[in-house]
Amino acid sequence: MSNDRLAPLDLAKTFFEALEKHDISLIERHLADDVVELIPFSNTGKPDPFYAFNGKPEVLAYLTTIVTRFSRVVLLNKRYSVDADGGTVFVQAEGDLVQAGTGTAYRNVYVFKFEIRDEQITHIDEYANPVTYSLLAGLPLG
Start and end of every SnoaL-like domain (predicted)? Predict the structure, then answer.
């Protein structure tokens, strides 16, 4: 396997390292200026995304909220899959987070899809159970 084929996998790993170390600067330079992050599964049950972050500033702001709202951010049992072209990385993981201030455990199951272009992350889809998150955040369901 060539070094180029490892780059997308390394980018995905760096994304999680940044979250787990509470250091968003580790991933900042690897995000394309026009990066998009979507959280497709909504607490309403409708097909509209729960959240959509468009552009590097919005994505960085979202990632920053994760590391400020959670004192512990760990994704366990990460299973990576890279497509044959090396432009897409899928990651299955189990979240083991702790809400800052309350100490409340937050555990969810995730699938991330990273799209890579020119050695930068251009698109992230973050699939998780919206019911689990909504219960933690006190958001309405349906």
Answer: 13-123
Do residues 96 and 74 lie in contact, with contact meaning Cβ atoms separated by under 8 Å?
Answer: yes
- Which position has the higher pLDDT, 127 or 5? 127
Tally of domains in the chain: 1
Q: For residue 60, is it within any domain?
A: yes
Side chain identity at residue 59, one-letter code: V
As to burial, measured by CB atoms within 10 angstroms (0-12 exposed, 13-18 middle, 19+ buried), residue 123 is middle
Query: Could you give the CA distance from residue 62 to residue 51 in angstroms, rounded to a whole number?
Result: 10
Enclosing domain of residue 52: 3-131
Tell me the pLDDT tens digit for each residue of 62-93: 999 999 999 999 999 999 999 999 899 999 99
Q: Strands (DSSP E) along 1-104, which ranges? A: 31-39, 51-54, 70-82, 88-99
